[in-house]
């Protein structure tokens, strides 16, 4: 057996950081993730490096912010053979196996994973027939946000494609576990090399569908966001979906609004999808124990790529820098080495690169452009000297959070400052208040140093974090 720890990396998609039992939600049923949280380290202020799927995942894997790694929007990918944490651990003897969604869209679909269990395969093609591309470009475009909400409800696993894919991914991970640790056909183990096993699911990403039983369970138990007001900002209220009762909807344009009952139904379906994710993670944990593995000897990481607004501020889905969208759940469990605790410092998914190298004893790459800090001091209760900053960006707009202050920059729109200590609901823009003048000046200086804003540093290369390994 290897003397280095195995790693189980559990990840879902578009999971709000507050919809868990361990986070105080008394409605949702997440016993398996709650068990990890109760015996692990919970990060209360973890953030995505980008509030959209593709760049968020590329940044997490590379340990670099969007502008550093060149993945700033949905259609961009890491260059082939990029240095990801999967590749780095593989270089130092780990088998790196991924079951499910990676979301690498370029020629290198695996980016360091030595085995990939997925429905998806192949590589990008340089399309030469522009007429054909235009003719078929409408295929599989998503519904409008309002239609996503109105169509939410019951969809069994043999109907909802995300649920079907996720079950396949979970079963693939379980099959791999059996083959690796038991191999009943040849009656031999394969434990001489350490393992990183990632199970990456698509739920609870929209469309919002769940089973009949789960939908009915949550329908009258959820507390949906139906009395929200849009934030007074052109971009932070972009794609809002107003909630209107039936009389209002008869007077208004029905296409752009939803009813309180439709919001409730979509919320119930979202909760049901979360319970499905939790079940699949639980079945994977059970399989490891079934083959004789001691989970206390494994490093287990659970997170999501970004959050989901779920109607808060009349916004759905992702892409905004409100806590519900930019915040992510993050739990790291290793009872053999780490005591359970809650960490309140600001961290990002980019920090997982250096953290996994630190925990597994793998040297960092010589390249000094990582926007990644080791979370190990925080995991051990030492926050002294921690650079208490989180950063997230998409395209040319971004968010910087330092301590309890969150600064949001959109070109050609007013900057926004939230003081989350006094305004956890993010309803008041403090950008012009006298007491925050110095903080705003510091944020704008940092904005330029990170390569954004009107005074962006033309020589930007990385975030400039000092190594703490």
How far apart the termini lie comes to: 27 Å
Roughly how many Å is the radius of gyration? Answer: 22 Å
Tell me what the CATH architecture of the largest domain is. 3-Layer(aba) Sandwich
Tally of DSSP helical segments = 14
Tell me the CATH topology of the largest domain: Alkaline Phosphatase, subunit A
Give the total of beta strands: 15
Give the name of the CATH superfamily of the largest domain: Alkaline Phosphatase, subunit A
Total of domains:
2
Morphology call: globular
The CATH class designation of the largest domain is Alpha Beta
SSE arrangement, N to C: EHEHHHEEHHEHEEHHHEHEEEHHEEEEH
**Beta-strand residue percentage:** 15-25%
Unreliable stretches (pLDDT < 50, length at least 5) are: none
Mean pLDDT: 91
Query: What characterizes the major β-sheet?
Result: 9 strands, mixed
In which range does the helix fraction lie?
25-40%
What class do helices, strands and sheet pairing give?
Answer: alpha/beta
Detailed description of the structure:
- By secondary structure, this protein is α/β, with parallel strands linked by helices.
- The protein folds into 2 domains: 7-121 and 144-395, Alkaline Phosphatase, subunit A, CATH 3.40.720; 401-458.
- The chain has helices at 31-38, 53-62, 66-69, 85-91, 130-136, 145-150, 161-181, 212-219, 246-251, 260-290, 323-326, 351-360, 376-379, 437-449; strands spanning 7-12, 41-47, 95-100, 115-117, 153-154, 195-200, 209-210, 299-304, 327-328, 330-333, 341-348, 389-394, 397-402, 405-409, 416-419.
- The strands form 3 sheets. Strands 1, 2, 3, 4, 6, 8, 9, 10 and 11 form a 9-stranded mixed beta sheet that branches.
- Strand 13 and strand 14 form a beta hairpin.
- Helix 7 runs parallel beside helix 10 (260-290) and helix 8 (212-219) crosses helix 10 (260-290).
């Amino acid at each position: 057996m290897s003397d280095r720890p195995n790693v189980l990396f559990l990840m879902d998609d578009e999971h709000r950081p507050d919809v868990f039992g361990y986070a105080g939600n008394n409605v949702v049923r997440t016993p398996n993730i709650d068990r990890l949280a109760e015996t692990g380290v919970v990060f209360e202020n973890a953030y995505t490096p980008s509030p959209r799927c593709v760049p968020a995942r590329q940044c997490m894997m590379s340990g670099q912010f969007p502008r550093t790694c060149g993945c700033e929007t949905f259609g961009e990918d890491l260059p082939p053979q990029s240095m990801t944490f999967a590749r780095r651990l593989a270089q130092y003897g780990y088998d790196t196996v991924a079951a499910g969604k990676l979301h690498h869209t370029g020629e290198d679909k695996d980016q360091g994973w030595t085995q990939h269990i997925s429905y998806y395969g192949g590589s990008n093609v340089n399309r030469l027939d522009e007429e054909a591309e235009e003719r078929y470009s409408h295929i599989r475009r998503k519904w409008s946000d309002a239609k996503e909400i109105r169509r939410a409800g019951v969809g069994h696993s043999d109907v909802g494609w995300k649920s079907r894919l996720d079950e396949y991914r979970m079963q693939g991970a379980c099959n791999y576990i059996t083959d690796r640790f038991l191999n009943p056909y040849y009656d031999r183990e394969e434990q001489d090399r350490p393992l990183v096993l990632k199970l990456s699911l698509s739920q609870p990403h929209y469309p919002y569908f769940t089973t009949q039983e789960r939908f009915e369970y949550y329908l009258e138990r959820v507390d949906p966001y139906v009395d929200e007001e849009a934030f007074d900002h052109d971009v932070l209220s972009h794609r809002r979906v107003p909630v209107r009762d039936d009389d209002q909807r008869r007077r208004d344009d029905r296409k752009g609004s939803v009813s309180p009952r439709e919001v409730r139904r979509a919320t119930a379906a979202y909760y049901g999808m979360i319970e499905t994710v939790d079940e699949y993670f639980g079945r994977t944990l059970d399989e490891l124990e079934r083959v004789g593995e001691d989970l206390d000897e494994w490093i287990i990481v659970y997170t999501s790529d970004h959050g989901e607004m779920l109607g808060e501020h009349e916004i759905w889905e992702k892409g905004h820098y409100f806590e519900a969208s930019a915040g992510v759940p993050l739990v790291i469990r290793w009872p053999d080495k780490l005591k359970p605790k809650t960490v309140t410092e600001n961290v990002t998914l980019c920090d997982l690169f250096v953290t996994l190298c630190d925990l597994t004893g793998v040297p960092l790459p010589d390249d000094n452009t990582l926007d990644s800090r080791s979370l190990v001091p925080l995991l051990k209760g030492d926050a002294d000297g921690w650079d208490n900053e989180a950063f997230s960006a998409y395209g040319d707009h971004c968010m910087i959070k330092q301590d309890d202050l969150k600064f949001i920059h959109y070109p050609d729109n007013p900057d926004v400052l939230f003081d989350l200590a006094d305004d956890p609901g993010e309803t008041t823009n403090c950008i012009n208040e006298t007491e925050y003048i110095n903080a705003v000046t510091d944020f704008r200086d940092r904005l330029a140093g990170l390569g954004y804003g009107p005074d962006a540093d033309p020589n930007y290369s990385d975030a400039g974090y000092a190594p703490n390994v």
